[in-house]
Amino acid sequence: MPTMKQIIDFEVTECAQMGPNYALLRLRPTRGDMPGIEPGQFVQVEVPNSKTTYLRRPISVNYADRHELWLLVRRAGDGTNALCNLNEGARLNIMLPLGHGFSTDVRGRALLVGGGVGVAPLRMLGRRLLAQGVEVEFLLGARTSADVLQLDLFRQTAETHVATEDGSWGHKGLVTEHPILQEPWDHIACCGPMPMMRAVAAIARERGIDCEVSLENVMACGLGACLCCVEDTADKGNVCVCQEGPVFNIKRLKW
Amino acid sequence: MCLKNPVMTASGTYGFGEEYADLVDLSRLGGIVVKGTTLEPRQGNPYPRMVETPSGMINAVGLQNKGVDYLVEHIYPRIKDLDTALVVNVSGRTVEDYATVCERLRPLDKIAAVEINISCPNVKQGGMSWGTTTAGCESVVSACRRAWDRTMIVKLTPNVTDITEIARAAEAAGADSVSLVNTFLGMAIDVERRRPYLSTITGGLSGAAIRPIAVRMVWQVAQAVKVPVIGLGGIMNGRDAVEFLLAGATAVQIGTANFIDPQVTVKAIDFISNYMERHGIERISDIRMV
């Protein structure tokens, strides 16, 4: 049985700026415990203090335990800006847990590939896979070293490779050009900008590696009701990313 | 059809109710209008289908649904025992499509009503084109009247010169009620990419932004027809629901607001009870402007 969806009020315990473009929100429920959250699931956040924001914002879960929820947020527009500008003590109304996360039925060697803020769900996944005896490594891609997020946490978890487009950290170039991708992997999990996910999926497909990607189609309800966030799948046509995803095996995708 | 309270959910925003079951006690709702159903399965329009706009959103879903036979066989058995009025929103390309869908729904005795959708702005054939002329409205509504013997609501588009004319045509053709408004045709352009946001270029605008126009149209239609009017368009809370009742609606539907607060319907129901108590009003029909 999947965990019941809930709407819970949270209090911001810390809003840590991570350079000019990102913030890490640490939240705790104002009462009761957090529901269980699987790696790759997301939440829908009501945005306070933004006149131009009407809908909730879907945000991937960065970390969760019984008492705490972390959201890693990129300043992409007015809504996410307002979230990144919250002060300690602010209240946030959040619907969770939503969608289906990454498959944890993985064996052998797994490479977890993240781009920009797309690294958010990967450490949770990595920890889960490591606990199951999977050999895990991370590959993080970013434009510059300033966009490499939570590097220390990743390094504490497993071996971590970095590629930056300007070469300011790690391998110079795109993640898809990093030599680590050429090693024999049994599974790749990927979350990041669409061009990156498409390129990683193409490599996985060519080499016959099982691969999952996390989509971020524009969403309204987050519950599978409005049918706005659809992805055209090979097996079932248009399906809701919020409900059947956000994580899809590339076998189901038409790209 | 008799509702336990005047708050229903609007078609296309509430799936089949099940999607909200974790978050809402569905038996508290006056009614659920399920997703628009057509004769044949439809894939809907290509992504992207939605863009957020000031106090609203534009959608171009395009009636994605699995067809009436799937509804009858797979969905109806799951939702038939929900303790709320079930209404199926019916759409089609041709008059025959509409009537056939009604006929196939007819044996399902837990369906309290159909809502004939002559107002969907997001399909190339049928949909809204039936609701923009009195003749089109009359032909669909009278065909459905012959095919359906229980309550028939006709959902009207606001994208017309005079909505009261269409409402009167629906009433004359046998509608038991009219619901309004469906979405307003809208468009939004990504100025950096210099392209429309939606795959279909235009779509249907909903949300708080449209409420004052919807209230005005409900007020006009309530004076033009004798059948009960169901008001909708940008209701965000109980206060907004009462505004529609004051404008002459007998019941309301809440749509887009469910995306922001899935519990808005239940909160609106509680607000209305409290409002009636505060104002010494005993019956919903006595909620009127003074």
Largest interface, with Cβ-Cβ < 8 Å? A-B, 30 and 35 residues
Unreliable spans of chain A are none
* Tally of individual domains of chain B: 1
Provide the low-confidence segments of chain B as ranges. none
What is the name of the CATH topology of the largest domain in chain A? Rossmann fold
**Count of helices of chain A?**
5
Question: What is the H/E order of chain A?
Answer: EEEEEHEEHEHEEEHEEEHE
How do the strands line up in the largest sheet of chain B?
1-2-5-6-7-8-13-14
Description:
The complex is a heterodimer of chains A (255) and B (290). Chain A contains five helices and 15 strands. Chain A has 255 residues and is α/β, with parallel strands linked by helices. Chain A has two domains: 6-98, Translation factors (Elongation Factor Tu (Ef-tu), domain 3, Beta Barrel); 109-214, Rossmann fold (3-Layer(aba) Sandwich), CATH 3.40.50. In chain A, the strands form three sheets. In chain A, strands 10-9-8-7-11-12-15 form a seven-stranded mixed β-sheet, sandwiched between helices. In chain A, helix 4 links the parallel strand 11 and strand 12. Chain A is globular and about 45 Å long. In chain B, strands 1-2-5-6-7-8-13-14 form an eight-stranded parallel barrel, surrounded by seven helices. Chain B has helices at 68-79, 95-105, 134-147, 163-172, 211-224, 238-246, 257-260, 264-278; strands spanning 7-9, 31-37, 50-53, 56-59, 85-90, 111-117, 151-155, 177-180, 184-187, 189-190, 195-196, 202-206, 229-231, 251-254. Chain B is an alpha/beta fold and 290 residues long. In chain B, helix 6 packs across helix 8 (264-278). The longest helix of chain B has 15 residues, at 264-278. Chain B is built from eight helices and 14 strands. Chain B has one domain: Aldolase class I (TIM Barrel, Alpha-Beta Barrel). Chains A and B meet through strand 13 of A and strand 3, strand 4 and helix 7 of B.
